[in-house]
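Example complex used in Figure S2.
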Amino acid sequence: MKPSSFEKRVKRRITGREHDFFAVCSPGLKKVCQNELLALGISENSLKPIPGGIEFKSKLAPCMAFNLNLRSPSRILMRVSQFKADSFEKLEKKLAAIDWNLYLPQNCSLKFSVTSKKSRLYHSDAIAQRCEKIILDQLRLGDTVTVPGKKKSLQTIYIRAEKDAFTISLDSTGALLFKRGIKQNVGMAPLRENLAFAMLFWAGFSKEDILIDPMCGSGTFSLEAAMMKTNLPPGFFRSFAFENWPGFSHKTYAYLKKQAQEKFLAISEKEIFASDIDDMALTALKQNISNHDFTRMIDVSKKDFFSIHPSGISPEKKGVVMLNPPYGKRLGEKNNIRSFYREIGKKLTADFKGWRVGIILPSRGCKSYLELKLELRPIFHGGLDIFAGIGMV
Ligand SMILES: C[S@@+](CC[C@H](N)C(=O)[O-])C[C@H]1O[C@@H](n2cnc3c(N)ncnc32)[C@H](O)[C@@H]1O
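Predicted assembly (393 residues):
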């Protein structure tokens, strides 16, 4: 079938040309993301680290691959336009000049994330209202085809204004990238998957390594490591906002996923050892791994960390141990934190010699309680500035 004039326009303006993208990263994870982008084939000189993440140039099809494969960023934005506006009139005129039908489906509802700094237009709700009206009016009158029966999609539009310079971006991701679509059952205080990945990366975890996850909760470290070992892309089981765009090609995306599927590895030996003292957390993890056939490679057992001897798990090979101990209110007073981390440090020193370790620390000071040589990496998690301690016991 011959492409319609609309399809030709989408090809010419959207899919056939490069755009600026922005990988949004949590504080501390930018370098990890940069590494991932390089590994996925983006050239070094097209990457531009800026506050909050990394800018890069790409066509839309690779952006789908980045959403599918990147483990560390929070989301990927596609830049649509940049312009100056110091009045609503100018803002509306610039927005109306964008052909929104090429970017968005007719049947979508819009959500806005607006920030304005040192700009004449500073009222974020008023900016969002004006922009929404213009875009929805255009979509209503536009020539995109609404797929009958297709559910209305939600599209977030990011508007940033600084000194009257506006940047308009579309969120290509949807739910944050740390949501892998695998962990249906979540325990108390789960770690975000992008952070778990960064810690595994910093500890040099590779496909050949044994992992011990002795305070596993609902198993974020274990599941992330299992995905890495089996070559399962982090986004394989979830959907993305770009799937609703007129420029989205089912065929290209299905091909990308098929290519990924051909690289899947089946692992039938136990290489990941997850344990916890909490029955509910273990039940959640068992359900999560049985949904995705990780049962043969992840061993789940009820154990107190202080009773684990890694020589009983992996007598020949030393591997990686990852710890996300309880902290904050659940652990109570400062003295408890001090003695808990002291005990963890003593246990690691006594029984985990030669193992690489990654441990979450609620404060810089906790490093001294552990008495281990660790490199501290500041991270942000659950609304708190905390640290990942990485080193070798
Ligand atoms: C912050 S949560 C871990 C969350 C986990 N990373 C996740 O993503 O779901 C801390 C876990 O440590 C466990 N825990 C506390 N003391 C323990 C001990 N002595 N041995 C084993 N697990 C312990 C708790 O039951 C809890 O599940």
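The CA atoms of residues 3 and 9 lie 10 Å apart. The mean pLDDT is 92.
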